[in-house]
């Protein structure tokens, strides 16, 4: 009987357990319900945000240099340099596209090129210069009388894996010369491409000056449960709504967002690409950007399009009968491909770092800091995938955004990547991770074991060139400070590259924008002790199609170039 009190214990226990289960189940579904409701509220809120975002885009005063004038005023010396730089990239041709009919604009199909001299009997030797004359016609077959067409030229041989970029000279009368130095014995085929007609360039020029808002940005502001999203850009018209001013205190680089309605400016948590404005072109203008018609289309030869190059001449006497004056040739090739390997012409021989061990050996004891857009992030990715000993350290950063870090502690290698400051069209960068390159450089100790690799171009094509000049000025100052306080620091700059273009991409990212920025970049760093990886020529000279992120075959050559700069004495197997 003494056990009686426990007689009903199993029943009691069962009741308690089932009660508990009931309660737990209910709690669970209540939570589910809450979660669901919160998430649908969040989605609704998000949808409202993004539609408001588009509706609330500012109306721009579409006047020239509106954007350029925001931010601090350049010093008198800076202004002189800016003037010089802008003059040096002045582009001939119509400045305004007066809506002439398509049939009066440049047509690659009616245009022709001729290898000079066109008569028989000319021999070409390595060391000579091959000259090509291009004549542009319109869609009716009539010769154009003014310049400004954007042409690119390449001499190549598929069999030999050879290629070199040509220099194009605009005679401003519808004729163009393309000039190629001859580097290899054997076949060499000329390829001339009309990237844009002069009329299309006029449209791009207008967009660049008047529509710096054609790519817009956004930021989320958050405090507790409240969150708001507003539009941001380098410049926003200040007469429409209150602004948050995120101008960088060190550099004076401007950045603005519209002030959220309820939250304060210091609740900004991130930065992201907002979107691309549509309907930027009139119907007439749109005809100037047709893939396969007048956008990156090859021009045919009127006669042969190739020559056979003979070994170098023995005699030093060479009869020059060139119509191109040597002083007109500004862009000398920085290298050429042979057997698909880039051969730089600056006296450096490029090592081949084909084995992971040769990469690791070269980078031993180095800290490599990469700053910039996704084209230098590609270098980070290439290095960690080709040298698995350099392991990525998980910083829990968003994919493709960073910051990223990779370490090989056995060889004391540290590899870092961080994106450049706004304008940056990445998906979502936390506000706390938004940094300007010049400020980052100021925070480096530097020295012989430090490498800095920079790439900054692609996100600036939607702005007037002055914006890019200002940014490079800040970076250049920081580079000079770094080299002065820490001699032996190696600074490598990756240039812009060509990319695949269709109508839409052209308006935001055309190679014409990139070329203009690239010329400025080269001029501004000419006198500074930095090394260049010429991505422009490496993509132009190569047979693979142009791509914003060049294919691995080209990146490999860039990396070999970088590694040759880092360890010139330790070249791996030289190609000689
Ligand atoms: C552009 O428009 C803004 C706003 O109306 C004005 O303040 C500015 O002076 C104009 N700039 C030029 C160069 O006309
Ligand atoms: C934003 O802040 C900077 C730096 O404090 C200042 O120079 C600039 O005038 C401000 N911009 C506006 C529109 O108030």
UniProtKB/TrEMBL annotation:
GO terms for biological process: nervous system development. SUPFAM superfamilies: E set domains. Pfam families: Neurexophilin (PF06312), NXPE4_C (PF24536). InterPro entries: Ig_E-set, NXPE4_C, NXPH/NXPE. It comes from the Eukaryota. Residues 342-567 form the NXPE C-terminal domain. Belongs to the NXPE family. This is NXPE family member 3. It comes from Betta splendens (Siamese fighting fish). The gene is nxpe3.
């Amino acid at each position: 009987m003494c056990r009686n009190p426990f007689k009903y214990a199993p029943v009691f226990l069962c009741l308690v357990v089932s009660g508990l289960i009931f309660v737990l189940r209910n709690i669970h579904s209540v939570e589910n319900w809450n979660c669901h409701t919160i998430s649908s509220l969040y989605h609704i809120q998000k949808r409202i945000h993004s539609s408001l975002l588009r509706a609330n885009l500012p109306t721009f005063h579409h006047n020239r240099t509106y954007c350029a004038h925001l931010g601090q005023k350049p010093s008198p010396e800076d202004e002189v340099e800016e003037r010089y730089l802008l003059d040096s990239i002045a582009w001939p041709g119509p400045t305004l596209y007066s809506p002439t009919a398509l049939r009066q604009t440049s047509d690659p199909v009616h245009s022709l090129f001729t290898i000079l001299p066109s008569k028989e009997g000319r021999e070409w030797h390595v060391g000579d210069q091959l000259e090509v004359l291009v004549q542009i016609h319109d869609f009716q077959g009539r010769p154009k009388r003014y310049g400004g067409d954007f042409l690119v030229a390449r001499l190549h041989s598929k069999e030999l894996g050879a290629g070199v970029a040509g220099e194009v000279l605009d005679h401003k009368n519808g004729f163009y010369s393309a000039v190629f130095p001859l580097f290899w014995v054997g076949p060499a085929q000329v390829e001339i491409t009309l990237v844009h007609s002069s009329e299309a360039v006029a449209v791009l020029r207008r967009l660049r000056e008047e529509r710096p808002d054609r790519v817009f940005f956004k930021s989320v502001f958050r405090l507790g449960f409240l969150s708001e999203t507003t539009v941001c850009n380098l410049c926003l018209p200040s007469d429409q709504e209150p602004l948050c001013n995120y101008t960088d205190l060190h550099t004076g680089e401007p950045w603005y967002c519209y002030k959220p309605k309820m939250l304060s400016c210091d609740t900004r948590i991130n930065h992201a690409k907002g979107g691309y404005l549509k309907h930027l072109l009139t119907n007439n203008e749109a005809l100037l950007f047709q893939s396969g018609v007048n956008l990156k289309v090859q021009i045919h030869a009127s006669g042969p399009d190739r020559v056979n190059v003979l070994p170098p001449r023995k005699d030093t006497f060479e009869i020059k009968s060139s119509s191109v004056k040597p002083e007109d040739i500004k862009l000398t090739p920085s290298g050429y491909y042979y057997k698909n390997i880039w051969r730089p012409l600056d006296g450096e021989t490029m090592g081949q770092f084909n084995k992971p061990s040769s990469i690791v050996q070269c980078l031993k004891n180095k800290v490599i800091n990469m700053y910039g857009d996704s084209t230098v992030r590609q270098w980070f990715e290439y290095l960690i995938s080709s040298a698995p000993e350099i392991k990525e350290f998980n910083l829990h950063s968003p994919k493709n955004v960073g910051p990223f870090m990779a370490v090989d502690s056995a060889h004391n290698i540290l590899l870092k990547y961080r994106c450049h400051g706004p304008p940056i069209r990445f998906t979502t960068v936390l506000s706390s991770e938004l940094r300007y390159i010049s400020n980052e450089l100021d925070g480096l100790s530097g020295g012989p074991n430090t490498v800095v690799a920079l790439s900054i171009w692609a996100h600036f094509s939607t702005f007037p060139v002055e914006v890019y000049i200002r940014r490079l000025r800040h970076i250049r100052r920081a580079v000079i400070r770094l080299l002065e306080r820490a001699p032996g620091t190696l600074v490598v700059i990756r240039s812009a590259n060509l990319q695949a273009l269709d109508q839409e991409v052209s308006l935001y990212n055309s190679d014409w924008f990139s070329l203009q920025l690239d010329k400025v970049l080269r001029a501004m760093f000419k006198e500074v002790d930095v090394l260049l990886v010429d991505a422009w020529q490496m993509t132009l000279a190569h047979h693979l199609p142009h791509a914003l992120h060049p294919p691995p075959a080209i990146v490999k050559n860039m990396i070999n170039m970088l590694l040759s700069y880092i360890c010139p004495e330790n070249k791996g197997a030289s190609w000689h």
